């Protein structure tokens, strides 16, 4: 059933790295910014306040992870739209390739690039940020994988609905980035005004932030089953909806 | 079959058979329903009504089985901008397993061997089209579908591609193509179906269609002989002779008209300074059948 998956994934990865800003935009720049900020801020950290420490120690890695996941999703949305507009999706479909194989290949490429960026960040972070933070990296990776799949499914839904490549990226950004604001990263959800509080509970990213933050802090998975369930629910609903409304041309 | 998009009827009760080993052309103006018909047969679209059978398979139900046995070239298709020619061939070959033919040889035959490391976006229109033909042939398909394959190409590339298509038939394959170029249909197709507004209005070999719908032929010649017109009118096959200065247009029916005119010239020692024939073509057939030119 997945005939051609690995070949297509490998080719899509190579094609992505051939893009003028492909590798630089997704991997080099985020890591570079992280390192530069680390250099500037890192040495002053021990004297900083407790809140700042909590943000640097927990909020920042979670924010960085989510931003990378969202940028991967937006890039996926754009690629799907361009492929659809150019008739590439249709051409690939007129072969024994299954539709799900084509889409899976793109998801694997995006997950791979997200992972590569994060590994580089962790390595860079070890140098510049206070030692003494020992997050459970395997658990965090799994949590991030769950979160990213859930966000990806929202991306697919956007890619299914947005008609042209020109609008895909901005519409994706308009939907994705404001979610961060109410997700509990900057202010605890409980402190938000009622309307925003309700909104926060409806936004999938809130559960991703809760899960990632908790796992980073060392919480047990059992404390976050609700988050995982919410993310799985979003994934299933969005995937089912995209399967219904996705257009190949 | 019948296929509608919203309230627009794209294909309305189209029905035909394609024989094994022939080049069959679906011809008509843009928007006549050619691509819709073809894509339903390829399994890319589902007709609203009707029954389609390709190689004994139902294109909708057995689409993957069918894709294994056919080759498809789509109208206005693209590949990833930065995919290399050999990567595309390699990917396609991997999809068909052992059935795949030698991609390198195909590239050679299609004159793309020196482009195997080029990105898709750097290829010319003709090269892209040849690559799509190569991809359509990589699984040694039993039926090849070609949708408007020479649109936008220069006359030289066009002729080269026509030779390629004839080569496909010579290897015993069936070719189903669409075109709005009547010259292409006339030179390439064993049989054509003329489609307009989603309906097939005629189906036969190009020559039979011409003989049946446009039996008129004309000879245009220039002569100073004052009795010329009269002599030509005496030929039984001639229906009308119009004179415009020294130029005479002799209109008649049947294959013998030209021979008879030449015979008359030599018998009466009529001196001509120019001589040409106007033979009807598929373009004229289309005009006769629909009342308008295919380009309108």
Write structural notes for this entry.
- The complex is a heterodimer of chains A (249) and B (296).
- The model of chain A has no long low-confidence stretch (mean pLDDT 82).
- Chain A is globular and about 55 Å long.
- The longest helix of chain A has 36 residues, at 50-85.
- By secondary structure, chain A is mostly helical.
- Chain A has 10 helices and no strands.
- Chain A has one domain.
- Chain B is elongated and about 75 Å long.
- With 296 residues, chain B is an alpha/beta fold.
- The chains are: A mainly alpha (249), B alpha/beta (296).
Mean pLDDT metric of chain A: 82
Radius of gyration of chain B: 24 Å
Low-confidence region ranges of chain A: none
Assigned CATH superfamily of the largest domain in chain B: P-loop containing nucleotide triphosphate hydrolases
Reading side by side through the largest sheet of chain B, how are the strands ordered?
4-5-6-3-7-8
Number of domains of chain A: 1
Chain oligomer state: heterodimer
How many domains make up the 3D coordinates of chain B? 2
Can you summarize the main beta sheet of chain A?
A: none
Q: Could you please say which CATH topology of the largest domain in chain B applies here?
A: Rossmann fold
Amino- and carboxy-terminal Cα gap of chain B: 26 Å
What average pLDDT do the residues of chain B reach?
A: 91
